[in-house]
Give the backbone structure.
Amino acid sequence: MITQRCDVLIIGGGPSGLTAAANLAGDHHVVVLERERFGGGIPRHSDHTGYGIRDLHRVMSGPAYAKRLVDTALASGVDLRTESMMTSWIGERSVAVTSPQGRYELAATAIILATGARERPRSARLVAGDRPAGVFTTGALQNLVHLHHRSPGSKAVVVGSELVSWSAVLTLREAGCETVEMITDRERSESYAAFHHVAKRVLSTPVSTLTRVRRIVGRDRVEAVELEHLASGAVRTVPCDTIVFTGDWIPDNELARLGGIELAAGSLAPAVDTTLRTSRPGVFAIGNLVHPVDTADVCAQDGHHVAQGVRELLHGRQNESANIAITVDSPLRWVSPSRIWRVDVAPARRRLLLWTDEYRPVAKLTATQADGVIGRITLPWPAAPGRVLRVPWSLLANVDPDGGDVGIRLG
Amino acid sequence: MSPVTWSGAMNGSPEVFDVVVIGGGIVGCAVARELTGFELTVGLIEARSDIGDVTSKANTAILHTGFDATPGSLESQLVRRGYELLSAYAPTAGIPIERTGALLVAWTDEELTTLPKLADKARQNGYEHAVLVDAQEVYRREPRLGPGALGGLAIPDESIICSWTSALAYVTEAVGRGLHLLLDQRVTGLEVNDSVTKIQTTRGAVHARWVINAAGHGADVIDRHLGYDRFTVVPRKGELIVFDKLARELVNSIVLPVPSSLGKGVLVSPTIYGNVMLGPTSENIIDRSDTSTTPAGLEFLFEKGVRIMPTLLTEEITATYAGLRASTEHDDFVIDLDGQRRYILLGGIRSTGLTASMALAEHVVELMNNAGEMLAPRSGLPPVPRMPSIGQATERPFQDAPRIDLDAEYGRIVCFCERVSRGEIRDALESVVPPTDLDGLRRRTRALMGRCQGFYCAAEVEALLDKGASGRGGHPEETS
């Protein structure tokens, strides 16, 4: 196998990877490996507006945003290799690549993992029943409708009521498929209240809470879905030909795991510090791989932020001044970053990203270190399951570099 | 003429076949392969549009030594012989196979006292390599087992194998030898005349001198068309959970429970594709086509799994499925020759059918010879086909640098989770027995079988299937 070299190797050509690449390409040879045929990542098939707000300071559609990220990267001199997939690690900082141009080894000084996240498919949620056609995740659905212009069905049940779930409803509507019901196993719907009410009225889709899919019915094509009410145990059958499982994100952490990189409890994402370094020397992780999932523009800002740490590494100056783990208490599920190796660097956008499993109309957070409270904050927005809770870094302003691990809890 | 046809009365097929095999499962395909090695015209009738599409596609895919069969039974004899035959055939045909060995684990004192009896049984079945091991050795072999294992019995020759590729290899070789494959046509009646049997199907009549009944879950129905009433197939459902490939390192061998009167019980096993499997359940059902999973079944497996290997259950689940074993009221295979009516029944072939398949085929030849057929081997048979490598233990096309240099399509990965290249999908669509639907393409290539279950590639793979073998057409984004 032939060995090639580069300064920075980025795995994944979505918003975070391409932004990091564009930032670093001026002074260095930066290679982006993108396994799909086109760069741009998930926004390519999210054909609705709302992209680019925080990073490009404008509002555009997913495909337009994706194209812009690719164009910028190419104009910056990024070596973007599409249809190119990292399949395994070879050395500490070298990887095996398969592409139509060949199978080769690629060695780098710094590696950035930006492989994103995916929704748990039906099987991973242990839903019983038949295994007919007509069962999708949002990703598979949008791929089908937006990229391949195919039709899903005519009557859908959407599982989940997060933002991404409504995105699925919009995609279904565009494809001529009516959403007869949305369900969530939680006590309340999870998307932003304002959006939720507008969506409910405009799309007139009923949302059933405390409800789960018990069984899928239909041999060749979905014919119905059996829904169970969690409180009463009552089971009812809803006729439909399409089921979309939305949300329930899992980071695409395969390469991180194969590389022996430490994962954060709760998210199964690579544990990173405020400079987005992982436990493997010279390897960084960014985007929805480390916070499954936040919006594309927040991912892109990881790409800006990681550049500083990568430059320091390339110039041989990577110092550590602390060794602090950040952990969370239930109902918080995870926090990112979850390490502090340098107290002098704030995380991207000066925000800690957290995930909660319970709703709190007002998000009050407390940070502790060595059993003492080091910070409290009350946010003017709720903590809601199904979307990232963004918390100002000031919560940890008083962290002691030698004071041991930090805990964050709700309340 | 294409060797594969969807028409009952086709050009080029003989007016009267020497032999027609009913049922294109693993057994029917093995029989067709064997018989086309003789001077015979052979047809294979399958109700579905693909071979291996019912019982043969959903099983535990273990190549059994037969150590725990009932000594002296026909099943014991055919499983042992079948193990030898398929072990030898698999490497030649490129069928993925791994000799992982199995470890029976005793969790109770009662089970522990059963182990020496099982070792004796293994010897009676002609299997000499079973080894009793103590608890310490059990944990040395399988460090991730849950607490409480008291001892074990190691069966070093139990193997895992790809059941899909096995059936495909048989039928591909058979078609190369001249088999007429009659797909998508269901047998509705049989009429035995002096020298020829008329087989009535949903696509017209087919005539044959000999009929071999390998109809699996329909074998008793076919048998009754001939006036017999000697067995009833009771479908026994087995539900299974497949865990992510990242779990593969947790398990070294096939971890079996000690069998009880309730059946063989729930096992944890590596799969030939590099996943880990937990199952099966065992439930007799009525509907012969019901392969749905149930809330109770999956819950039961979870309870069992937590005890056997707790860490396994923290891994992601890639798939759940259910298969049906064709059990009957008899303890053995139900095999019978009716020489006068030139009819052979291969009934009640349950989960050991994969292992026994080639031996069953040999047995059919023996029975026909016993009936005075005196089958003459054909000379100049084509070489054994080389099937695509879809197992994890051998090199896959995406890892094969020289192959990608010769044909870039093998470097163009379409299914990322299973690392299936466009070249492999193209090859499957152009193969001797091509897939007719997405499921068939999955079985031939593993596309869509991975952890994302199509999040990334479902639409792309479906488009390739629709375009067919010739299509190398544009991607939607290329024109936008």
